[in-house]
Amino acid sequence: MTDRRPTAMDKAKKQWEVMALNALLIFFMNFAIFLSVPPQIKIFEDIICRKIHLDNALNLHPGDDDSCRGALVQTELARINGWKTTFEALPSIWSDVLPLRLVWLSGLLRSIGGGEPVIDSIMAVMVMDVFEERDRDTVTLLTLLILSAVALLRLHSVFIVAKILAAPTSAAVVALGSPWTPFMLSLVILSAAQVLSFLLPETLGYAEPQEPDDNRTRRSITEKKGNLIQKFALSAKFVVQNPNMVPIIIVNLVASITKSSSNFLLQYSSTRYGWSYSLSSLVLMIREASSLITYLVLTPAASAAIRRIGRGSVTAQDKRLCQAGGLLNVFGYFSIATAATPVLFMLALAFLSLGSGFDTVVTSFATSLVQPHQIVSLHLVAATAKSIGGLVGGPLFARLMQVGFELGSGWLGMPYIAAGLFFFAVLLALSSIRIQSRNLDETEQPLLPTDV
What we know:
The protein is mainly alpha-helical and 452 residues long. It has helices spanning 8-52, 71-87, 116-130, 141-176, 180-197, 228-241, 245-259, 265-273, 277-283, 285-309, 314-338, 342-353, 358-368, 375-407, 414-431. The chain folds into 2 domains: 7-207, no CATH class; 225-437 and 448-452, Growth Hormone, Chain: A (Up-down Bundle). Keywords: Membrane, Transmembrane, Transmembrane helix.
């Protein structure tokens, strides 16, 4: 039997199949994960409260006593959640026997397979595999990335929708009974979602021409060339030879660290305004709903407006878009930190969401700074910086929240003051990037879709 290249109908069917299955997998997995967040924090708080107030354990009802909202309990809760982010932990079953901090060790299980970052990367590659260019002789790599960016944009929207729906569902289930109910429900949904992963088709090399030597520009991330030392040497050489890579690394590293502050918004809002975790999770929906609008409408609209009225190259316009997004994040985090009333906090959440498309525009901008054959190296370096930032961010913001509790209620917003300062450093790094001309087609397009 001879191999044949897929027809247009075959490609459309494959694209629909991969997109639909990935979307369902993303939705159910993230719905289950975010369904468990408020009850998990409540369970952790109850455990800590019992341990700290052991003398009154017979009369204490964890979560209903004001002492559970005291600095001692909330400081330990922030520390637990900070390191939990680093180790990707799960709650301990034997909370009355084993120290709660042992949940940090369960993150070791994710060393097999790599956890969510690897899953996200595999899904992104699968989408890029099936959204292949129709004619390799006439379509550039950047065109492929534009098509893939639109597809990934839709998948990210599914992620946000899952977060939006999970919050009220979790709050409703908690109101009906124990916080363990939605937590166990999330495990059931997460387990059921794994079945979908077995339905995903193989996409590696799907649209590649069946030729012995096609001089392919794009390589699968699963292709192995050389040993680890050689790969490290190539990445180091890439960074050294491109002066813009250092600020790009700083941008990805610091932005990734700052994103960890979002993991403490639930505890922060609950403590500062005296809300239950269920109510806080509902209020935080404001940010998610606004982020969905920003991601699908406002960011592409801003990109389109800059293209129409902007001066300079596409790369220069992308840089201005990045700087605008960074500035919105600076003011957004400062607004979160200084919001004295619940109404101001809700407005600050909506304002912060205006900068939620920052990662996407940075990806577009960074890609435009390198030659097409360097894109894989760029994303490898950026992914490494983000991973390091994710490891550092959780413990760092946990410590900042602890300091805020120690200084008093007026300093509870310290983590978000720091987050605003971090994004100011991101702006400085972006400003240091120098745009140089590249030998590319004049019809080069940005990664962000601009048809709004």
